[in-house]
Amino acid sequence: MPELIAAAGSPRLLPAIQALYEEAFPERERIPFGVLSDPGCFELLAITEKGVFLGFAACRRKASLSSLVYFAILPEKRSQGIGGAALERLLEHLAGTPVFIDIEDPETAGDGQALRGRRMRFYERHGFSDMGFTESWQGVRYRILSRGGRISAQDVQRFWGAIARPQVIFNSARTHRSRGANPRRALQGKATAGSQPSEARAFWLE
Question: Over the stretch 68-112, which tens digit does the pLDDT of each residue have?
């Protein structure tokens, strides 16, 4: 079973986490690593097994809601069931509140549609449900999934609201969240506003 180690208490793991972070997420989706590794902004966790580094996760928790913001497994460890086991371990760690993620909408046509569908099915296998609304940023639509309880667009807005106060726009079919500054990029004013958001992508799929 994968183990979770707080990076804040194990600085020796930071170089491995940073290398994987930069490999797994395009530059436009990354925040400065100094922000990511700041315990006041995120809970940064190394994923290990028997002392071997396997991946990392970055979470943000509040009293009534949690988010899995970044999550990646080493390339050579992917497609071996490690991602699913690590996800379950993370969900145990975050127990007590619903946990939400955002994924690129699988209904979006174009390159990568099959991968987006696979990503959606992966989450569904692990108990996540579509919340019925999406958020849009820089022309890309992201679907919100949650496990452990239903959440609304307002819940997501409040979760990030103390940081960036995004505007919620309602339409007849879906709810889209238009962000003047991405909350994950504007934490405590330390990061660059206007960048495309990250998601817990398929780098760690089974």
Answer: 989 999 999 988 999 999 999 999 999 999 999 988 888 877 777
- Assess contact for 70 and 22: CB atoms under 8 A: no
How would you class 165 by CB atoms within 10 Å of its CB: exposed for 0-12, middle for 13-18, buried for 19 or more? Answer: middle
**Single-letter amino acid code for the residue at 118:** R
Run of H or E residues at 180: none
3-class SS string, 16-85: HHHHHHHHHCCHHHCCCHHHHCCCCCCEEEEEEECCEEEEEEEEEECCCCEEEEEEEECHHHCCCCHHHH
Name the packing angle between helices 113-125 and 82-93 (round to 10°): 50
Quote the pLDDT of residue 104: 81
